[in-house]
Design a protein that fits this description.
Blueprint (H helix, E strand, L loop, with lengths): L8 H18 L8 E2 L1 E5 H5 L31 E6 L2 E6 L2 E3 L6 E3 L5 H17 L5 E2 L3 H8 L6 H16 L1 E8 L2 E7 L2 E5 L4 H6 L11 E4 L1 H7 L4 E5 L10 H14 L7 E5 H8 L5 H19 L5 E3 L3 E5 L3 H5 L3 E2 L8 H9 L2 H5 L10
Antiparallel strand pairs: 1-16, 2-12, 3-4, 4-8, 5-6, 7-11, 8-9, 10-11, 13-15, 14-15
Helix pairs in contact: 3-5, 3-8, 8-10
């Protein structure tokens, strides 16, 4: 009979994968010889992307649950759904009544490259400061500049729109297991401060006169996740080539997530069915490849300085990369580095205790 203290095959495999991930993270320690620029994305957003484009309601008789469109915008659906295996994810917009005018609006579901970059920014901010759940809004501009987002009026307006959508969006996960269905309701931000009539201007689609929030506070759950060990290191500079491509961002962070668990001498196949299920819209393999070939190529190119990715009839094949080669993704010129030394120290601090003395941590805790 198997003892409770005796590790199972699954436990051992999990421990090996965790140890391999630690090797990659340890490779990202600072060095007198170079500078590293590291952003972070939480693993849950690596596994399932936000909508690629706005959820335009194309029906002739829209649902009564959808509030009238904000002036200048087409009517949007109030929710986005993604299902895989025994789990389903719903991303829901929020209906609001504004306190000054009493107007009712639907903030809309976050979508596109800007929403993804803002989640990356929020996760990175939480990693840099693991004691303060209020985000420094002013850091958005410098971070976006580094990843190549032009800070013109149209770009600023798109960022403000997606930041408001993310501020009010709700994420619901349903999972069927053992004859029961479990659910969790989450939000990224639990509170925030907008100036004066900014939300009224947003309701008028007057984004030029909407200012950045004075402050946004991550929910306790989001903060714990974003600042914890499940945040995946992302090379900030590599985002430059894909910052305007939603699908490329999704594929890039997903490959980074998977890459750190591939043992030496092995490859990992991400088959087309899996990719379509996680990031597509139920289209055929041929259609998915045709529609997103440019995005796939750009995501692979962003990985190319350190990781080998091949494409075949079955899908994308990730090849094992040595930790020292993986580190090359993050090396940048000191003059262009924006990620503070605190970020790298936080990365080391969260893994060093177990790395120094793995005997102090049991297999079942990994």
């Amino acid at each position: 009979m198997l003892s409770l203290s005796q590790p199972t095959t699954t436990d051992i495999e999990r421990a090996k994968a965790t140890d391999l991930a630690r090797q990659y993270e340890l490779a990202l320690q600072g060095s007198p010889d170079d500078e590293l620029d590291i952003s972070f994305m939480h693993s849950s957003f690596c596994l399932s992307g936000l909508p690629l484009r706005p959820l335009i309601d194309r029906s002739q008789t829209p649902s009564d649950s959808t509030l009238p469109a904000i002036p200048g915008r087409r009517k949007e659906l109030p929710a986005f759904f993604r299902r895989g295996g025994s789990c389903s994810l719903s991303i829901n917009a929020t209906n609001l009544q504004l306190p000054i005018s009493g107007r009712e609006i639907c903030t809309g579901v976050p979508w596109g490259s800007r929403s993804r970059l803002l989640v990356l920014w929020a996760t990175t901010a939480a990693q840099q400061n693991d004691t303060n759940t209020w985000l420094e809004i002013g850091s958005i501009r410098s971070w976006l500049k580094v990843i190549g987002v032009q800070y013109c009026q149209d770009s600023i307006n798109a960022i403000k729109d997606q930041l408001i959508r993310l501020s009010f969006a709700r994420f619901t996960m349903l999972m069927a297991h053992g004859g029961n269905q479990f659910f969790t309701n989450d939000c990224l931000f639990e509170s925030g401060v907008f100036e004066d009539t900014d939300l009224e201007n947003y309701a008028d689609n007057d984004l030029t006169n909407v200012r950045m929030p004075l402050g946004l506070k991550l929910s306790d759950k989001a903060f714990q996740r974003f600042s914890g060990r499940d945040a995946i290191p992302v090379p900030t500079q590599a985002l430059r080539t894909i910052a305007n491509n939603s699908m490329a961002i999704d594929l890039f962070v997903y490959m980074l997530f998977k890459l750190r668990a591939i043992p030496e001498g092995e490859t990992f196949l991400i088959n087309w069915k899996s990719l379509i299920g996680q990031f597509g819209n139920g289209e055929s393999k041929s259609r998915f490849i045709k529609d997103y070939k440019a995005s796939i190529d750009r995501a692979i190119e962003a990985m190319s300085c350190a990781a080998k990715v091949s494409v075949d009839e079955e899908g994308l094949r990730l090849h094992h990369v040595k930790p020292a080669e993986f580190r090359r993704l993050f090396v940048v010129s000191p003059s262009t580095s924006t990620t503070s030394r605190i970020t790298r120290n936080r990365l080391v601090n969260r893994i060093m205790p177990a790395a120094i003395d793995p005997a102090k941590q049991s297999v079942l805790e990994l």
